[in-house]
Amino acid sequence: MYKIASLFALAVLLAAQGASAQTLKTVKDRGALNCGANGTLAGFGLPDAQGAWTGLDVDFCRAVAAAIFDDPNKVKFVALTAKDRFTALQSGEVDVLARNTTWTSSRDTSLGLNFTGVNYYDGQGFLVRKSLKVNSALELNGASVCVQQGTTTELNLADYFRASKMTLKTVTFATANEAVKAYDAGRCDAYTTDASGLYSERLRLASAGDHIILPEIISKEPLGPAVRHGDDQWFDVVKWVHFAMVNAEELGITQKNVGEMLKSDNPEIKRLLGTEGAFGEQLGLTKDWVVRIVGKVGNYGEIFEKNVGQGSPMKIARGLNGLWNKGGLQYAPPVR
Amino acid sequence: MSSDSTPSGPARVAFYNDPKIRSIFYQLALLAAIAFLVYGAVSNAIENLARANIASGFGFWNNTAGFDISQTLISYSSQASTYGRAFWVGLLNTLLVAGLGIVFATILGFIVGLSRLSKNWLLSKVAGGFVETIRNLPLLLQLLFWYNAVLKALPDIRDSIVIPGGGMINNRGLFLPRPEFLYGFEMVLVALAVGVAGSIGFYIWARKRQERTGQQAPVAAVVLALVIGLPLAVLALKGFPLSFSYPQAGRFNIAGGVEILPEFAALLFGLSIYTAAFIAEVVRAGVLAVSHGQVEAAYSLGLQPRPTLRLIVVPQAMRVIIPPLTSQYLNLTKNSSLAVAIGYPDLVQVFTGTVLNQTGQAVEVVAITMLVYLVISLSTSLLMNIYNRRVALVER
Question: Domains in chain A, start-ordered, CATH in brackets?
């Protein structure tokens, strides 16, 4: 139903008028950011028992809201399935899509999206039962694999089995929930999605200890937030919120010490925190935009550890998502 | 009377007051307004899609699909097949489940509907309970129930239940031996065709003779002999040119044989039962609509209860049953799109699901899908209308 509604919204919107090119102004006037999030993936986007949203992507949206409103709670989260997420963004139902979405060329071009960066470097893996005694994805010839529809995963899966000259039986479900449930019920031998998703979904299985994640990572899945094409100002805002969080981590600015850092003599810190220059205003935000982000939400390393790293049940290592000067890929252009 | 007065007809009025011209004018104006609205919407959509850099047009149809589909009635592979091919795969899957669903729902619906009218108290209460339960629960809920009930109840693939004759059943589906036709089997098909043609001929001849002389012929026995006996005889004569490929347990899955997916089974089951409950009510209403005097008249002519039902009640009831039955068929076809919830690859799941998402061309994909459902529904409706015209009361 939701999908039909959003498709209608898209059709009506496209037929009536172009999507507003002034997203930042629209968001400010509305008083809240509409954020398309994953509603079912622990660590990335999931409402808890009290209805409070948590996750890496959720915190990204909170950071955008903090930068604009100085209040990380001025976000309306919209839970989207993989299949409906692009339509929701295209139709203007959400202002930013932060839903563990892989950046690909066709999504950047023919879907009319702009990816603002990569907030999680991921790759696709396989979850299997220990009792199958499979140690490598290359032993999966002839297996049934449950997969979620409308994902790059669905395509990589077919590619990988073809390239490895193996056959497979794909069982496709509209949502990750249903795919995992079917896997748990024994409908499939393996469940495949991004490795981060596997760690998260494994925690929800009936007996998590009976399942292992195979060592092969069969694809590149750079996950990042996306906005609509055609609004460069909004694109810049969302892009630089991520860079600001990475730069803050690199410069050692944390949620705790951001107040003291305001007194720092380091010119890089001064520029980032807005005690020197007018970089926030240039974005259409305020001078203290990074103070708001880090003070209210945290730097990149903090939200990573809290949601998927050591502070979470998943305990995923930083790996590729470490800072560039610590062996990872997270690198942000300087603020100046 | 002066000579210039018009001899007959209504008084002449100005053309703009002529009701005929006025009505034509209003209709043209409405048509123009609709055409303008459609044109405006389409051109606006195209322009705005272009401005938002969203691809448009139908060029995606011939691009490689790149994803797999679990049930394909025509050959399909992720590397070689196009989005267009995926569309046909999805459409055929929809038609398969809708076609079989209509057959099963009709049979079950007639049985339940007639049972509800039965004089047997238990039978009629059971039928009534079935109708009231099934009709009043949402279909989506029922589909999820059947899917999960089917999956949970069946054993793991390594403990498959073996069906005598070489079949297997487990939580991956139902696996049956697949017949493979060897040289000489085409004669069996010829025999079958001859049998069917012969049966139709015999039926027509028997009916004509009965109309002429009142004598009845054993139609059922002759048809059975022609349609089943003749091909079997040819099969035996040719020395059974037929072999079976039996399902074999592989490391993960079962190879060989015919595979019936649990998703398909659950969807077919759910749709058939749900629609049967509605059809049962339609049938009951149709039978009750036949005046009781008709039955009494038949009995007074000495007809037995069964011929009364077959020759007097049902033909008249059909007139009432056909139109609402058509809407139930259409409902079933449209409801098959709920397949998306349980992972059956129907048109909506494959085309407006994966294809839409991979190409991002929501407007085109949704337009095509709507058109397809419209065509399916209108064709069903057309066939039923033709049938309806045949059974409808001919008034003289």
Answer: 2-121+223-326 (3.40.190.10), 124-219 (3.40.190.10)
Measure Cα distances from A45 to A79, A84, A197, B6, B36 in Å.
8, 16, 11, 85, 45
What is the nearest CA distance from B338 to chain A, expressed in angstroms?
A: 11
Q: Using a CB-CB distance cutoff of 8 angstroms, which residues of chain A are in contact with residue B51?
A: 18, 230
Distance CA B244, CA B222 (A): 30
Residue type, B83: Y
- Are B253 and A173 in contact (CB < 8 Å)? no
Kindly report the backbone phi and psi dihedral angles of residue A244, in degrees, each rounded to the nearest multiple of 5, phi listed first.
-60, -40
CA-to-CA distance for A124 and B144, rounded, in angstroms?
28
In angstroms, the CA B115 to CA B122 distance is: 10
Strand order in the sheet with A211-213: A168-173, A143-148, A190-194, A124-129, A211-213
Least confident of A145-159, B3-17, B195-209, B236-250: B3-17
Domain positions in chain B: 15-48, 83-177+246-391, 184-243
Taking contacts as CB-CB distances below 8 angstroms, the residues of chain B near A86 are 357, 360
Contact between B94 and B340 (Cβ < 8 Å): no
> Are A155 and B341 inside 8 Å of each other by CB?
no
pLDDT one-digit tens code per residue, B99-125? 999 999 999 999 999 999 988 999 999
State the residue for tokens 């009364």: B308
CB contact under 8 A, A189 and B366: no
Q: Does ipTM exceed 0.85? A: no
Classify strands A211-213 and A124-129 as parallel, antiparallel or unpaired.
Answer: antiparallel
Start-to-end CA distance of chain A, whole Å, equals 47
Q: pLDDT tens digit string along B30-76?
A: 999 999 999 998 888 888 888 777 778 888 899 988 888 888 888 89
- For B196-223, letters b (16+ CB in 10 Å) and e give eebbeebeeebeeeeeeeeeeeeeeebb
Chain A nearest-CA distance from B8, in A, is 55
pLDDT tens, position by position, B271-318: 999 999 999 999 999 999 999 999 999 999 999 988 898 889 988 998
Rounded distance between C-alpha atoms, residue A110 and residue A101, angstroms:
16
Which is the CATH superfamily of the domain at B83-177+246-391? Answer: MetI-like (1.10.3720.10)
Contact A138, A216 (CB under 8 A): yes
In chain B, which residues have their Cβ closer than 8 Å to the Cβ of A14? 44-45, 48-49, 363
State how far Cα B39 lies from the chain centre.
Answer: 35
Nearest CA in chain A to B263: A171
